[in-house]
Amino acid sequence: MKGFWNSKSIIRITLSFIFLFISQFSDVLAAPTRHLCRPEQKDALVKFKNEFEIGKPCRYCTMYCIEPHPKTESWGNNNSDCCNWEGVTCNAKSGEVIELDLSCSYLHGRFHSNSSIRNLHFLTTLDLSFNDFKSQITSSFENLSHLTYLDLSFNHFSGQVPSSIGNLSHLTFLDLYYNHFSGQVPSSIGNLSHLTFLDLSFNRFFGQFPSSIGGLSHLTTLNLFLNNFLGQIPSSIGNLSNLTTLYLSNNNFSGQIPSFIGNLSQLTLLDLSINNFFGQVPGWLWTLPNLFYVNLSNNTFIGFQRPKKPEPSMGHLLGSNNNFTGKIPSFICELRSLETLDLSGNNFSGSIPRCMGNLKSNLSHLNLRQNNLSGGLPKHIFEILRSLDVGHNQLVGKLPRSLRFFSTLEVLNLESNRINDTFPFWLTSLPKLQVLVLRSNAFHGQIHEASFLKLRIIDISHNHFKGTLPSDYFVKWSAMSSLGTDEDRSNANYMGSGYYQDSMVLMNKGVESELIRILTIYTALDFSGNKFEGEIPKSIGLLEELLVLNLSNNAFTGHIPSSMGNLTALESLDVSQNKLYGEIPQEIGNLSFLSCMNFSHNQLAGLVPGGQQFLTQPCSSFEDNLGLFGSTLEEVCRDIHTPASHQQYKTPETEEEDEEVISWIAAAIGFIPGIVLGLTIGYILVFYKPEWFIKTFGRNNCRRRSTTTTH
């Protein structure tokens, strides 16, 4: 009975609480939903939306934006709270719009000075990146005095940055990257004393950079690359004690590396490439305790000063295309954390230092191309390399067999040296090898059957390889074939790491092309300039991902395999200067991407395939194939005086008869006028004896006769 009354009491108490809650909040529950967004803020957003059109995505949207789409398309519903609109963030108490993120929103149009964005007075964050906004930065931005974050990158803003930018004194982040801004940077930028990030790159700024930059004591990142700044680096940059990134490449800065950079103890990235710096690289540079990446490429530096004690933090050193001479400095061997070393395009001589074996635990990219290095390749020192480029030197000897243990190697470039060896078939054991360049060396002998599972680019041209290639030679080259995975094709990245991209020179469409960066889906095969013979392997048709195929300057015989019609991605084909005969396969005419081809200097005959690709080729692509004919050939050779189709049936006997006829015609043409002219002159001389003739020739003849008589 006691338990019953306890339960009854609990029920009464619970009901009392429910009744109290309902009575207290009945007004709230009955009231209509209250919007957080303030009406004038909503009006400003709607007007701002209507100032611009929604068009196509910008050029880089699909590359850099995670989910590009028109965010403002859903704006404007009268019953909706603008604080819930996509890209809009409001203050939770006041309802004022404080953040506006319209990046990657397909917006197109011009900013006007009376843009309604000026009515969003309390904005702290404004991101308009990756759209197609045009015009100058207008006064409408001046009213946004509470801004701390402004991103206008990847648009088409132009003109000068107004000095009023200095009024946005609360800014901590300013990104104007990739626009068309021009003129000089206003000195008022030094008023942005809270700024931590400043990016003015990829514009058209010129002149000297303002020294007022030294007042931005909180700045950690300064990016100025790809402009036309000139003169010396402002000395006030030495005051930026918190600076971690200084990116000045692709400008016209000049002078020696200033000593005040040595004050930037927090610096991790320094890029001075493609400027007009000169002199010695100072030794103190390698003593900065946090410096991880240094790019000095494309200047006129002449040497390295040796540091007293280099810091071990250096991870990436790029010094290509300068005037460095002598031996590779030994202090580099002390940079134990080095991951990338690029000293290509200099005048270093001597051999590759053996002490570089100290770097083997970290070094992943080594580029010493285009120097005067000699000797052989060192052994057992680069076991975790991802790329090794020593092209355009004077290296001799054989390839060290220790290369087969470099299980991480992706790029091996040995072009233009004096390496004398047989084909390194043992490289097939490298599971990640994607680029193999042996061009212009003294490699020789036959090529054994090989299975390169990941290889996408192979260039063994201009060596002394010989022999035949088996019909199934390319069966196991899956990275170039349709057997490649969908994942391989979808990962269209560039080879290299975040700090360094591999590069190479490749023959493409008859000319040398430099691939500044190598796309991982790029595929090419160049066997030209050797002594291969026999038939072209039919398995070549399995390489359906191939873009460039060059088999020229060999001794291939037989027919061009019809399986080449399966190379649906092919853009360039060269089989010139061989001994091929028969027809050009009609299937090749269906290759819609094939824009450059060369069949010249063979023994081909028959109908030239039709198709627009063939009609755009020069006549020289088919020359010295006397048996070719057809409307396509007549069309491409119509500007030649003697059409190729008329030459195709002439035998040597016919040509001799033609020559005799032409000779008799020429003789007749010269003989008849000669007789007429001779008789006319003779008649004049005999009957009229002009005085000038007698004076000139008559007396001389007399003298000659008299002299002869005397003797």
UniProtKB/TrEMBL annotation:
Belongs to the RLP family. The chain crosses the membrane at residues 661-688. Keywords: Cell membrane, Glycoprotein, Leucine-rich repeat, Membrane, Receptor, Repeat, Signal, Transmembrane, Transmembrane helix. Its main location: membrane. Involved in perception of extracellular signals. Residues 1-30 form the signal peptide. It is found in: Cell membrane. Residues 39-91 form the Leucine-rich repeat-containing N-terminal plant-type domain. Residues 111-224 form the Disease resistance R13L4/SHOC-2-like LRR domain. It comes from the Eukaryota. This is Receptor like protein. It is a single-pass type I membrane protein. The lineage of its organism: Eukaryota, Viridiplantae, Streptophyta, Embryophyta, Tracheophyta. The keyword Glycoprotein applies. InterPro entries: Leu-rich_rpt (IPR001611), Leu-rich_rpt_typical-subtyp (IPR003591), LRR_N_plant-typ (IPR013210), LRR_R13L4/SHOC2-like (IPR055414). The keyword ATP-binding does not apply. GO terms for cellular component: plasma membrane.
